[in-house]
Amino acid sequence: MATLILVRHGRSTANTSGVLAGRTPGVALDERGAAQAAALPGRLADVPLAAAVTSPLQRCRETLRPLLDARPGLPLHVEDRISECDYGDWSGRKLAELGDEPLMEVVQAHASAAAFPGGESMRAMQDRAVEAVRDWNARIDAEHGEDATYLMCSHGDIVKAIVADALGMHLDLFQRIHVDPCSVTAIRYTRLRPFLLRLGDTGDFAGFAPREHPDSSGTAEVGGGAGAP
Description:
alpha/beta
């Protein structure tokens, strides 16, 4: 079956401002995110891609733009089921504020029981994302053969939820997975089981160094999704 390359979008203005963006419109890549996106074609230069699939949100489309420019014949498909989690009333709020919400503890430790006010549950988020992957695996296999590779550009919580499913992990454990902006995760699907080939690969080990504390300007980077460390 197909091999899936999962790309989390590049660093966004919401990441650097510490905001839970969700599906808020107008969230773009920041300067570093644009540089990450510009480097993506080189990182994937040796990987033949049958198709690219993207979340409809702006930051994912911007992440794929350099890759599509470098590969004019690569078909692009928009897939609503890999859009960001619908955080409902939490969308657009500061993560620092949300840390005091009782629900945040549930999101971290018991994600399968978490449902965002005015939004969706984390179970529903995982279900739709995994269903999309299964459907696209079948489509890519049928159109390009079982050895084909394709790419999906999505969001932190979506990538983590798909990885958890591939590893047979309960959703309650998915916060143990971390994927950086513009990281590459690869899963090879077979008839009997998936194999995780790469997880959160950026080629940059600087992130292993101790992080600086956020300064008063609030410009320290924050990871994606409600489960950001």
